[in-house]
Amino acid sequence: MTTSFVLRRIGFYVLICAITLFFAVPMLWIASAPFDASPGLGVHWPDWTLENVRKTLDHPYAMHSMVNSLLICVTTAVAVTAFAALASYALSRVRIPGRDALLYGLLLLSSVVTGTAAMVPIFVMMFQLGLIDSRFGVALVMTGGLLPAAIFILKDFVDAVPKSYEESARVFGASTGQILRDVVLPVARPGLATIMVWAFVNSWGNFLVPFLLIRSIDKQPGAVLMQTLTDEGGSVNLQVLPVFSLLFSIPVVVLYLLVNSRYGFRFHGGIKS
Amino acid sequence: MRSLSRLTTAGVLGAAALALLTGCLGSSDSGSGDQDANRNADAKKVELTFGSNSVKGGKSSAGATFVEDVLIPKFVADQKGKGVDVTVKFQGDGSDDEVYKQKLSLDLSNKSGPDLFQIDGIWVGEFAQANYIKPLTDTVGDAAKVDDWDGWKQIPESVQALGSYNGQRYGVPGGTDGRVLYFNKKLFQQAGLPADWQPKSWADIISAGQALKKIAGVTPIQINAGTAMGEATTMQGVLPLLVGTGATVNSDGKWLGNNEQLRQVLDFYHQVYSTGLGDPVLQREAKGRDKSFAEFAANKIGILLESDYFWRSVVEPKEGVAKMADRDTAVGWAMIPARQPGAGVKGQDFVSMSGGGATVINPNTKFPQQAWEFLQFMNSAEMVKESLAGAAKITQRSDVNSEVLKSDPMLSFVAEKVLPITQYRPGRAEYPKISAALQQATADVVGGKSTDAAAAAYGKAVETAAGGKDKVNSN
Amino acid sequence: MTSASAPPVPAEPVPGRGSGRRSGGGRGPARDVAGLGVGRALGFVAPAMLLIGAFLIFPALWTIYIGVTNYRLTGVEAVSPSIVGLSNYTKALNDALFHNALWLTLLFVLGSAIIGQNVLGFTLAWVMRRTRPAVRRTVEAFVLLAWILPSTVVAYLWVAFYDRDGGTLNSLLGTPGTAWLIDYPMACLVVFNTWRGTAFSMMLYSSALQAVPPSQLESARMVGASGWQTLRDVVFPHIRGHVLTNTLLISLWTANDFSPFLLTKGGPNHESETVPVYIYNVALQGGELGYSSAISFLLLIANLLVSLVYLRLLRRRS
Question: Which residues of A touch B55 (CB under 8 A)?
């Protein structure tokens, strides 16, 4: 064991430690503020109490908004994954000239639509369609916004899956349906799972679309409700907000852990050698 | 191959074009004309929606709870007695005012939206100009029906202005408020200042601040500045000072420009923030206002200009956001002085600013007569009193005020002494831009720019916002 | 994982069902190996295209149209907006605040995405290639947690971190009373966004690194190449495409990111007002939808230019 080796090892672990701390330390607030009797905007050793949790659970809309969030985001995630999978497979395997330009164009447009400026067109269109105050409507709009990036990412993924499997299956006389179901799907599953989590995470935190389109407070998802956790004058309600933030974060974390343990969480690559 | 891409593109474009056409047709349908105000007047089954930027458990929770749990059931019962089956739905929200305004506007521009809704007094002008609301006499149809309501006699003229535009009533105002100078009596004692302090000029405020400066760790004066606090800077900072110089932000249709009085206000800011009497960094923080409250409650600020909201909900001993257990003994209040005695608007020695909202009727409602009945019911003495739920708060009706404010010295003070001398903001469409320019001017001064430079920049911004030099008062 | 640059399988017409399309030269991905056929391919793409057409293309086109009017949501211009042609665009191009926003966005993207997330993501992927699974999983968990938490929650976390009085950063550095978000807003945002988005780069690079042939790495090690030389000569040529793709995606996402608003609201005094925040302020505070739509379109053009640069670089590689 040479000195340089030892030094390199130490340096390596110091680096890993520093980076891990960089990521972990800002999260301290969400570990301490929910259980603090006098929570502030800074982080300090809390005055342990469960009172804030009780207050949050008693809040008339807080917990129900999480149910709304689940409804909207599961729909969005499933729709995005399903449609993007179909589209990306077709775009990957069947040649369409202008396909690349189309994809990039859509990717660019999706950035305009997710901004504030597009709120009038989206609102008027949903109004004409009669989809105001509808959670399904919100899911539709969010799906539309997320699809280009999802297709973009998934197409890259599918491109990297070797065609030899599908070709062999064809040689053995499998039908298209069988090929898709038994050959392509299992290989593409990690990518699909990742996109599903990605779509879920993006829609979970989306505030603007549900805020614009939903009118009844009992249909609002958590992302919108968090903005309303204020007092009469608009000051932040620090007794409910930290607890709600914590609770609100749990479903996405759980989903990620589930997917990660079953499929591994990767944006790229199909077969491991 | 090629046909595939062409087909897809064509399909998409075709769908888009079709939708575009229908969309355009829908949104340009502005010719609805005047509907019959007596439509559905005799309906036995009525549905109303009541919209407000409040929500149970969040913003203005008390108000939302009152509407949902008390006002609506009582109205329904009252109507049932008259043989009408009414359902009223409460459409709450809880977001930032600016955002709520845009959301409401989206609904209204598409001829939908709640049948009755609450808006800030300063939005009345721009909503009226956009035809989102109409004068009450037009919506209800019968001028006598509107003007003969006995509630108007109980609402002072100045307060009625909250729901009016161009001299016409568009809605009924909700409660109002008043601004004063709060001071910490404990710190005053330490600094050798009197417990019944009442400054008579700006110079008095400055000298009190200088006395407080001697105490370590204390910010003598907190007067809102900068753009981070938004309208709170204008209402609890610029405007109370401005009316103390004798000018209003809009007089005779002209907006305040780069004139003598504006520069006097900016000079005051300059004096406070450049001689260590104020905390400039606090004015730039995103949560600066909340922090200023917390600091006052922690006895770190000597003098604070705020509205009675501060007394009722911030330092309130039991439920306040920054509660002070010794509020009743430790917090004093004084009227805001004019720059010098007699220099205020209308020659007043003392001045203040007030705000508030109004409840208006959607001109596209299906039930205008019933909506007006709801409005009257909501603003009856009994309902207004019940809306307070025992708390002391300044309402729009003087009869209720004289009853409920007896127990609270500060609020009675505001109702009796401050409301008569107060001013309201003009409910015109350009106001938000003028307010933003005022905030920017104070930000410039606090940030180190000279008064003249800040005032000049303000003057230019106002000319653009107001639409021309002729709409601005400058000298 | 088979390398993405493996020689293509020669295109033999496969007997059997479906009008299998034969792409010229059989190069790359576009080969209908499952016998999908044009019809079904169209059918597969249709649902996505329908949704995209309705909820993306149409609103985007309409927004562009609003950009040539002086439409407002309240006031006189709400009832009768008029077409003002390109005056919104000339206004934007002369608008000092817009220039400010563009410059700040450039800094933001450069600092937090092109440099920050890329470098940190790659470092993590490279360094953890052969660490113990337990260590790797822990680090990955924290990095991903930063990315997964909802943005409103993350905003509060960082406001608390940077807080002047009780903030963690001040406690750690022993600098009480420093108002980070006021004095160094862009630096704070860059650090924040790096923290927030590194996960994506990390994952992308760690998959990409698996495609580097171990044999080449082995040879490099045997000839005594330093770490840096290995990176430069062996690794980068293989992952160049991935670097470009990653950089493009995170640049676009960062350029359009709204989270700076949640931390600083664009303040103090417009010092951290990136273009998305500026659009929001113009639209909501000022109510000027016509102008904000024009700015959105300009942002789109900027995104387009960046993507074109990327495409040129990508095409040059092949």
Answer: 61, 217, 228
Locate all alpha helices (DSSP H) within C256-288, ordered by sequence: 259-264, 275-280
Among chain B residues, CA nearest to A132? B107
Which chain A residues are closer than 8 Å to B8 by Cβ?
96, 102
- The pTM (predicted TM-score) of the whole model is 0.79
Has residue A53 been placed in a domain?
A: no
Distance CA B114, CA B102 (A): 14
Cα separation of C68 and B348, whole Å?
49
Burial C113-130 (b: 16+ CB within 10 A, else e): beebbbebbbbbbbebee
**CATH number of the domain where residue C157 is located:** 1.10.3720.10
Block residue for tokens 């660490």: C131
Instruction: For residues B386 and B121, give the distance between their C-alpha atoms in angstroms, rounded to a whole number.
Output: 23
The distance of B94 to chain A (nearest Cα, Å) reads 4
How many domains does chain A divide into? 1
- Structural domain includes residue C3: no
Residues 6+ apart with CB under 8 A from B216: none
Nearest to C75 among B20, B126, B286 (CB): B126
Phi and psi of B32, rounded to 5°? -80, -20
Q: In chain A, what residues touch B110 (CB-CB under 8 Å)?
A: 123-124, 127
pLDDT band at A268 (very low <50, low <70, confident <90, very high): low
Sequence-distant (6+) residues with CB within 8 A of A112 are: A118, C60, C63, C296, C297, C299, C300
Whether C183 is in a domain gets the answer: yes
- The verdict on residue A41 lying in a domain is no
CA distance B72 to chain A (A): 16
Contacting A residues, span 160-219, partner chain B, CB-CB under 8 Å: 211-212, 215-217
A5 is a domain residue: no
Q: How far is CA B77 from CA B26, B64, B377, B387, in A?
A: 39, 19, 12, 17
Can you give the residue range of the structural domain that contains A245? 60-263
Residue A208 in tokens: 């603007």
pLDDT digits (tens, 9 = 90+) for B393-444: 899 898 998 888 888 999 999 988 898 888 888 877 788 889 989 999 999 9
Are residues A215 and A132 in contact, defined by beta-carbon separation less than 8 angstroms? yes
Task: Determine, for residues B94 and A217 on separate chains, whether the beta-carbon distance falls below 8 Å.
Answer: yes
Mean pLDDT of chain A: 82
Of chain A, the end-to-end C-alpha distance in Å amounts to 32
Ordered by where they begin, the domains of chain B are: 45-169+356-387 (3.40.190.10), 179-353+429-473 (3.40.190.10)
Q: What is the token pair recorded at C89? A: 């665009």
Q: Is residue C305 part of a domain?
A: yes
Q: A124 lies in a domain?
A: yes
Q: Is there a domain that residue C53 lies in?
A: no
Q: How many CA atoms lie within 13 A of C25 on its CB side?
A: 4
What value of ipTM does the predicted structure carry? 0.80
Which range of residues forms the domain containing residue C165? 87-317
Domain total for chain C? 1
Please give the structure tokens belonging to residue C292: 């904000």
Q: Measure B197 CA to nearest chain C CA, in Å.
A: 31
C78 at interface of B, judged by CB pairs closer than 8 A: yes
- The CATH number linked to A118 is 1.10.3720.10
Query: What pLDDT is recorded for position A51?
Result: 82
